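Aim 2 progress update. The chain analyzed this quarter is reproduced below.
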Amino acid sequence: MTPQPGHPHQSEPRVLRTIGGISEALRGARRAQFFAEVLAAEQGAELDATLTEWWGRAMLDSDPQRDRIHAAAEAGTLPTTSWDEIARRRRANDGAMPGE
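Predicted structure tokens:
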């Protein structure tokens, strides 16, 4: 039996960046708040900004590790990484940093 990766590559995002995709992923009262903001947003840039903001929230709400991460954050045990450390790791793996 071949070991499977811990995070298999997904061809589609976990949450589609659409009104339907976002609303399906949101928990509880956040869904109603999302719909209220979408209805209040003007078409174009304002609606796009609203969808972007709520897509991020929906990604967090639908994260399979959400409860574990939230508990670790509240307990002060959530590991953190600085931007400098991320840059060092990417360079060590021959990955260029944005803007380079």
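Residues 1-5 have pLDDT under 50 and may be disordered. The chain has one domain: 19-92. These observations will guide the mutagenesis experiments scheduled for the next reporting period.
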